[in-house]
Amino acid sequence: MQAKDSNPPDGGYGWVVVVSAFMVMGLTAAVLKTFGLFFVEIQQHFDELASTTSWITSVTIAIFHLGAPVASSLCVRYTHRAVVITGGLLAFSGMALGFLGLNMVWMYATTGFLQGLGISFSWTPAISIVSHYFSKKRALANAIASAGECAFAFTFGPFFQWLISQYGWKGALLIIGGIQLNICVCGVLMRPLASSCLLQAGHSETETPLGNGASRIEKEDKSPITHKTFNWMLVRRPEFVLYAIFGLLAAMSFFVPPLFLVPLSYSLGIDESWTASLLSILAMVDFAGRLLCGWYANLHVTKTVHLLTMTITLISTSLMLLPLANNYLSLAIFTGFYGFFFGTTVAVHITVLADVVGMPDFDSALGLFMLIRSTGGFVGPPLAGLIVDMAGDYRAGFYMAGATLVLSAGFLVTLDQLQQRKERGSQTNTKPEKSMLPYSSLHLLKLQ
């Protein structure tokens, strides 16, 4: 199993999987990212505070993360394909039932819980199977797949705005749910890696005895991208814990800007049509950031954890500057900076996780990472909403997000120091063994 894990196809049908994952990212994360367009509509419909309305997104984000270990475990037991198809059906159900809009609790249960579970069951296996299909080009493949989020968000911004104006926010939810059924089609295309490995192994099996060939096929049927058990013991590894804390703090910040960008623009007196274009700008520069960073990471010039630390520092700086905007042009410029650095961050953070734990434990690590990170996603938007209500200004939410990201960067620095210390320790332990042979040989020569 480890041999196969260390030699994935790194191309071929893997690119079909990347395109499928690209679509899944767009139909899940992009929908969540542009949900801010519904924020004001739902808030006015139910006549609720910003903090109360923000719980819809908070529940979605929390379930998205909490469902990740369940999704990973189901991938271990069944296949990534089956879990993605299930996720598509759940996402559709969440939006279709949200169309009824009975009350705020109903919205929490439908567009919050069901939609979050659908996103989790679609996003988690999609990004996981891409990492298994690629090794040398993993950073680039992950960047291309994740770019589906911003590619779709680029068009979803004005498209959702048009849907709301034509059919109301309830009708828009129903239509979006129907579009999300395409996740099931993408799931069908995510062929288990064992299928391709069996085809590759067929040539070598012709030269082996029948009994050995049969046993090899049985091993391949277990699929090199799955494991017998979900590894919960990763929580005992300091490197993983440090990275998970980083993810928790980052999740508190990542979902705040898209949620409050639209209300902030309204508070500045910017027209609705121009406001929708801000989300398109955000998606466009996000897309460029992901591809550029993925390409650069694929060159292996800079250590991935160093690259991630740099991008987190830059994104926090841009969030601190964004509230200084006082008109559309300045807001668009600062939004562009934030979107670009956000894209570079998303392009490499999954690759860093794979580097930290190794591919044999990646499925378990991804599930646990999302689970731990869920606390940040659950607390972040309501906390920012509370701060906004207290300050009476949407700018306060952006300051909170930037400060939290600065804190998260500190854990990346600590992780890097720990890894370097372990590397130096392993090098020190091997040096005496290498130097003893020349010394002993020279000593024997002297004795002779």
How would you describe the overall organization of this protein?
The chain has 448 residues and is mainly α. The chain folds into two domains: 184 residues, MFS general substrate transporter like domains (Growth Hormone, Chain: A); 192 residues, MFS general substrate transporter like domains (Growth Hormone, Chain: A). Helices cover 84% and strands 0% of the residues. The chain contains 17 helices and no strands. Helix 2 runs antiparallel to helix 8, helix 3 packs parallel to helix 7 and helix 11 runs antiparallel to helix 15. The longest helix has 53 residues. The chain starts with a helix and ends with a helix.
Largest sheet: none
The termini sit apart by 51 Å
Which stretches are poorly predicted, pLDDT < 50 over at least 5 residues?
Answer: 1-6, 195-227, 433-448
- Number of separate structural domains: 2
Number of strand elements:
0
User: What does the radius of gyration come to?
Assistant: 24 Å
Q: What is the averaged pLDDT score?
A: 79
Q: N-to-C SSE series?
A: HHHHHHHHHHHHHHHHH
Q: What would the principal axes of the Cα set say about the shape?
A: globular
Structural class: mainly alpha
Helical segment count = 17
Q: CATH superfamily assignment of the largest domain?
A: MFS general substrate transporter like domains
**DSSP helix fraction:** over 70%
CATH T-level fold name of the largest domain: Growth Hormone, Chain: A
Residues in β-strands, percent: under 5%
* Highest CATH level, the class of the largest domain: Mainly Alpha
Q: What is the level-2 CATH architecture name of the largest domain?
A: Up-down Bundle
